Amino acid sequence: MANVARYDYSGAKILVTGGTSGIGAAVAAGYRAAGADVTITGTRAAPSDYDEDLSGYRYLQLDIEDTDSVARVAAAASAGGLDILINNAGLALPSIGLDEYDPEIFSRAINMHLTSAYRMAKGCFDALSKSTLAGGASIVGIASMSSYFGIGIVPGYGAAKTGILGLTRVLAVEWGKHGIRVNAVAAGLTESRMTAGTFANPEWSQPTLARTPAGRLGKPEDIAGAVLFLTSAGASWVTGQTLPVDGGFTVAG
Questions:
Q1: Can you give the pLDDT at residue 207?
Q2: What are the catalytic residues?
């Protein structure tokens, strides 16, 4: 986490969904390094089922597509208080060989990345509204370049990630009076299990790299730094916003 600015989140209670790898793991590690009490979710039954050392976290199993599972995790994570929710769980279904142009798969993508993100936020609302964290309680959603551009292979994922921007705005407006700030980070092409194939294929990665003013593709720590800022007291007047973290890709011609 050398590239992440130092914050003090001592005593803060954090939930990071999809926190076992990639962006979620980097975000969770950033909060843990800053002294927070961090709960992560994953799809497997127990943290021992992962190769990674997850012993520094509280672990909850989550099926982000299952309404009851989302409700159970929200309730468990909220017990004893919650200050920050990072809605990160999900994947682009074509990365596991599914076609999002199939209406059923499209519907799964919307449910996974948008509807379930809202359900998780709603389930955590009561606990977040009682937070006394400096700067207020926060929800941060993980959006995408597909929130801004039509990326042909992911119609469902792209539609859902576009929806995250709208959800961020409306929840910020409605929940601000309860002391909850709601923002999002639009991640550029960032290393993860989901994007490993893209990184390995120059046909996909090189055009993105060529358009990126920073001259490199993203690392999970790049996204983590933005997330930790948005939930900090230093961002206490920032809500309803989506911050592109993409090395300048969205502003390049």
A1: 83
A2: 157
